[in-house]
């Protein structure tokens, strides 16, 4: 199962987007279906542009257009807290577009190579998601150690189990894993 395949929708409802934005320091009051569509379009475009960058391919023009449009249309401002942290202030609490502009600008700086790290593709053949490798050696293989990394290890473990001793337990485990 791929986290990024079209078949799996990770932000199925406006509320899920609201929750996700809050976790990322971009709290909004609400989200309309149209704003959710825009968020999905931005996510797909970032995915396409990051993948192209990871494999050193030309950037897809349509993806660049969507990312730029989202970046330009937002009115989020970086503000400094008394504790010295950076926060994002949106023009209004219902302005999902402002939150998306922060995400678009963030993606631009990563794709443009301004950040310390390297864009790579997940080694899981069923995932192949683009991720930003900030490890010291730049040798991270999976987009997420807890999902793809683990799945890969389990798959190898189960394959070995089957080779060594085919058991009902092994088959049941496979069912649980998939
Ligand atoms: Zn992955």
Automatic annotation (TrEMBL):
The region annotated as signal peptide is: none
Which protein is depicted?
A: CGNR zinc finger domain-containing protein
The organism sits in which domain of life? Bacteria
This protein's species is Amycolatopsis pigmentata
Which InterPro entries did the record assign? ABATE, ABATE_dom_sf, Znf_CGNR
Q: Ranges for the Zinc finger CGNR domain?
A: 119-159
